[in-house]
Amino acid sequence: MIKKYKMQDVDCADCAAKMERSIRKIDGVNDATISFMTQKLTIDVEDDKLDSVLAEAQRRVSKVDAEAKILI
Amino acid sequence: MGSLNNKQKRWLARIITAGALYAAVIIFQNTGPADSEKYPWLSFALYMIPYLIVGYDVLKKAFVNISHGQVFDENFLMMIATFGALGVREYSEAVAVMLFYQVGELFQNYAVERSRKSITDLMNIVPQYANLEVGGKIIKVDPDGVDTGSTIVIMPGERVPLDGIVIEGTSMLDTAALTGESVPRKVSDGSDIISGCVNGSGTLRVRTTSTFEDSTVSRILELVEDASSRKAKTENFITHFARYYTPIVTLGAVVLALVPPLLFGGEWSNWIQRACIFLIVSCPCAIVISVPLGFFGGIGAASKAGILVKGSNYLETASELKTVVFDKTGTLTKGEFEVNEIRPAAGVTEEELLEKTAFAERYSNHPIAQSIKRAYGKDFDEHAVNGTEEEAGRGIITHLDGSEILVGNKLLMENHGVAFEKNGSAGTVVYTSQDGRFLGSVVISDAIKESSIGAVNGLRQNGITKTVMLTGDRKEAADDAASKIGIDEVYSELLPADKVGVVEKLLDREQSGGGRLAFVGDGINDAPVLMRSDVGIAMGSMGSDAAIEAADVVIMDDDLGKLPVLMRIARKTMRIVRQNIVFALAVKLSILALGAFGLANMWEAVFGDVGVAVICILNSMRMLGSGSRK
């Protein structure tokens, strides 16, 4: 299932790339891209794991940049 | 810089305050009593004021990120670099580095924000409400809640909220936001209208044919927004590069700071300073920001011109195109039949021939009959046409003012023993006779689009070396059209299923030569070919789901002139992206080299970081301005 979320305060392009790499490694995520320009996360996730993946994704995003958020 | 947001304004204020204090401290140091030689701690304290004002957030972020285990973060690098400078008592340099770093960051932030805004403005085609007709009354509702098949009213000047069919009223529609086409389109009863267009001066009643989610406007928005998620090879390369560049340069800095002083008795302050230069240049931001920004700008410029590019990768591939394959009918030609030649027999005028032919076809709805009637263009007065009968596969026989008229192909003529003159022109030939006397022939063929000749030329000027046409038409008709348009290679008499095979063969040939191939079609029957080619371009597909799905690039109207525009935008984007990469790498690597040998100072390093980023961003932003309408 492919889902799209808006993001907020992703301030640097390199950080977006780091978040993207980190989110891809979450169990249950088939693919993920973060567009720095449009501040958007596109995530391909296994159907039943969506909630836990999103929570983990937010944790990993905060780790790269404490101010950045995934708007759910 | 009139449009700074509040966050940016505060940021700017901090930079200005710190800059002023910094200048004051320098003046005080050089003229006043606080000689830094005598009072080193006073000097340090004074410089710390502007340093903290401008850099406190960098330090804070650096600490927060360290606690999260993120070390090669740019805040951290700036912190270490400036601490290093402070440590070797280069207070002034430390403040300057932080100050300029912040100027650069603010500028980046502003530039990115502006580019985002210019794209959203461009895409500011989302209708806010719909006037729904319920039981004779009109209520304003969110277009999201309107069911398919509802009746809505669109007032003059309003944006069309949903796709639909006009059931009452006439107006001119401004489609510029969707197609880049500045000439408004006339709509009246029965016309399809598309969401996102702006209504002219007439009021329209419309029956909706889509929900908001499936409407053209929603799909276009989604497409453009998603485009930056499909990353180009260059973008991926840069991300990979950045991943290794920063750690390697940082490691280099550590080696520079420790090895010479420990092993070779180098002077600590000197080598730490060189290490700081490494740290400052170690941030890959200039490239990491400017490359996607360039692609983003390219996609924006294209959509401004009515060309939707579904990903940065397609823009990149488009710049490498060498061959363009066209589907003929509906792409190079209008897909409508038109009278192209009127050849009267001796002693008959053109008018007379066309008139007799048109009268005979008067009641026929066949496309060929329609085109003859259009070419005749006059009203039919009350001549007595009666007793029309059809000879299947041959033509018709009719009686006009008492004489017998035959209109049809050569079989009809032969069958009735008419001595006719054979016409070998490309297209469909219609022969006419009156009471056994041959009047002449009329040739009907699919009309070539005016824009196709210019487009093929324009493509050639923009790097395309080969143009190919595919068609199901007979060889003569196909060759004739191709030579008129200036197409290099023709594949005719193809069945629809053959097209994929031909394109695959061409793809093999193209890719073995390192070039890329685009297929241009109307998107109706050619979805497999669109998907198979390197870049599938669908034309005139405003509102066609299948085309938008299958194609990589969607041209909203049917103007082939958009193809050279796409090539220009793609090539310009790639030029800018390459310039940025080469420039940023060249500057950074030379500063690294000079820094290692002690030939660069911190100021140059700051230029290598912030200056380069600013220049690259400005370069990328040129793309945003280049969305020419034509």
Describe the structure.
The complex is a heterodimer of chains A (72) and B (630). Chain A is an alpha+beta fold. In chain A, 38% of the residues lie in helices and 32% in strands. Chain A has helices at 13-24, 50-64; strands at residues 2-8, 29-35, 40-45, 69-71. In chain A, strands 2-3-1-4 form a four-stranded antiparallel sheet. Chain B is elongated, with a radius of gyration of 35 Å. The model of chain B has no long low-confidence stretch (mean pLDDT 84). Among the domains of chain B are: 130-161 and 163-209, Calcium-transporting ATPase, cytoplasmic transduction domain A; 335-447, 3-Layer(aba) Sandwich (Calcium-transporting ATPase, cytoplasmic domain N). In chain B, strands 10-22-21-20-11-18-19 form a seven-stranded mixed sheet, with helices on both faces. Chain B has a six-stranded antiparallel sheet with strand order 2-1-3-9-4-7, with no helix packed on it. In chain B, strands 12-17-16-15-14-13 form a six-stranded antiparallel sheet, with helices on both faces.
